[in-house]
């Protein structure tokens, strides 16, 4: 299970048992400020792990020596020095802090395997859910604001089917109802 957290939880992740792994800036397009001040066109993407980082990076050297597959601790490949992805155009945004689907897809490729489950506890625009489906992952989106739920339904409905409590066991539904979230969306790949 991979969890997407809001920025305000960043450094408090340690209190929740997360261990800091890496920080990669996201360069938000090609905008250059001509005001003489530093442009705010970057945002830090912070990566944490719950406990020791997973062994995802293929270790060719050790594999060649032993003849068995070995993996090193860390992400699935070397993280880039910067994610250079255009932000969502203002006219196309359905949420004020919407991440582009392309950025979410890149992050998912580094920190998850196909078939894993992604949890986005602040769904906002549903971009993580779209990225998860595009990369053959399942996803659980949680959103409390009804207006965001309606926007996700309106703009993302052509990509995945959304219903308030589809695909859950009776026990899961009881837990979800106690949480008092506006909507919990379980998105699974078509198999």
Explain what the structure shows:
It is built from 5 helices and 9 strands; from the N terminus they run E-E-E-E-H-E-E-H-E-H-E-H-H-E. The chain has helices at 60-66, 101-111, 127-134, 146-156, 170-179; strands at residues 2-4, 18-28, 42-50, 57-58, 71-72, 83-85, 117-120, 138-143, 183-187. The chain has a 4-stranded mixed beta sheet with strand order 1-7-8-9. Strands 3-2-6 form a 3-stranded mixed beta sheet, with helices on one face. The chain has a two-stranded antiparallel ribbon with strand order 4-5. Helix 2 packs across helix 3. The model is unreliable at 158-162 and 179-183 (pLDDT under 50).
Question: What is the topological layout?
Answer:
Elements: E1 2-4, E2 18-28, E3 42-50, E4 57-58, H1 60-66, E5 71-72, E6 83-85, H2 101-111, E7 117-120, H3 127-134, E8 138-143, H4 146-156, H5 170-179, E9 183-187
Parallel strand pairs: 1-7, 2-6, 7-8
Antiparallel strand pairs: 2-3, 4-5, 8-9
Helix pairs in contact: 2-3
The stretches of 5 or more residues where confidence is low (pLDDT under 50) are: 158-162, 179-183
Percentage beta strand: 15-25%
Radius of gyration: 18 Å
The counted number of beta strands is 9
Mean pLDDT: 75
For the biggest sheet, the summary is: 4 strands, mixed
Question: End-to-end span in angstroms?
Answer: 19 Å
User: Which structural class fits the helix and strand makeup?
Assistant: alpha/beta
The residue fraction in helices comes out at 10-25%
Widest sheet: strand ordering = 1-7-8-9
Write down the secondary-structure element order.
Answer: EEEEHEEHEHEHHE
Outline: globular
| Helix run count | 5
